Amino acid sequence: MDKEFIVNSDGLHQAVDLMGRDFSNTEGLALPIQLPHVGMGSSAALNSLAPSILGGAARLGEATSFAHMDPPTPWITWAMTLWNASLNQNLLHPATAPVARQIEQRVVAWLAPFFGMNGGHMTPGSTVANLTALWSARECAGITEVIASGGAHLSIAKAAHILGLKYLSVPVDANGSMDATQLPTDLSKSALVLTAGATSTGAIDPFDLAGRAAWTHVDAAWAGPLRLSQYAHLLDGIELADSVAVSAHKWLFQPKESALVLFKDTEKAHAAVSFGGAYLATPNVGLLGSHGATATALLATLLAWGREGVAQRIEHCMDLARRLRDFVAADERLALYAEPQTGIVVWRPQDENLFDQVLQQLPVGSTSTTSMAGVKWFRNVAANPNADIDMLIATIQKVLPERA
Length: 404
Ligand SMILES: *Cc1c(COP(=O)(O)O)cnc(C)c1O
Hints:
Blueprint: H1 9-19, H2 42-55, H3 75-87, H4 98-111, E1 119-123, H5 126-141, E2 145-149, H6 154-163, E3 166-170, E4 190-195, E5 215-219, E6 243-247, H7 248-251, E7 259-263, H8 266-272, E8 274-275, E9 284-285, H9 295-330, E10 334-336, E11 344-349, H10 355-361, E12 368-372, E13 375-381, H11 389-399
Bound molecules: pyridoxal-5'-phosphate.
């Protein structure tokens, strides 16, 4: 028997022990230039890779981490990822994923109603979810054009390109939301994409536009999970959409690649994007061929935390963002881009000459940058419940020049 294919408790414990070690002084990736002829063995490989992989990684759960939409992940998802890797189910076939397929269906059934949708499936990200939704829109509603705001994610233009659809970008207002006055009047051949949580600014497009076009798709990759929280009302109107995309690997704290595409009429939407090869017992729905049991980690998290546990963490993140917003708004040396809507704070020094100097002195991983209408801004994203906002505020205060 080849022991590499059975549970090795010592080896797996070694991997977990290494996760607790401090490799922060490691530099670069020390690897053989060429494929080794003779292997070093799994235990040696773990020891050899730990300094680079663990030491060299961006630490998304660190107190300073407040820059991007990538959250830290709870340990239960690490356990599920381990089980997934060992079981290697393929959701393409009921025969190779009897339980895993049901788990995905259950997770989708739990979450879809929060968005007024009746089903859907998991995808490796909202890039694929957006493409799948617009593909369904083309098939089900005969749309020839995709309309989105200037703040929409690049995956929308990418989807239009792949699908051979025209793409119209509508200007945004001063808050970064779609300026509804700039929309064409005839939307009878259009898929209207409303963004819930624009990537740069966190802005929400006006949801009273939902249902006005031949197909309405909501890209809620970032802000979708607010539906499970006390901030659910911010996305009221989402239930009028025909499809919704949500990335679970953003504000649902899941390991990549985990997202959902949800539909109002799932039977019809799925039928439009299904293909059945002769060797498949059930039709293949959507873009993916072989794919793994991503839903198990999401299901385990939802089971462990409940809706309440998810809501608490998102609401805590919203508090962190509000505290940064309050600080920026109260300091005359700083400017706020707009009122933060979904946990993303966009700001800058009033004196734009200070931009680079301030950025250099902020902790690595604490702040990202974006640019709007030729102006550079700092951007903080509240994806990390363990972020230390007092420390970030204290650091900003320290690096700003004395008040005049
Ligand atoms: C992140 C993001 C996407 C893309 O999602 P992935 O999960 O990274 O593929 C799409 N739209 C918005 C608004 C996003 O923030």
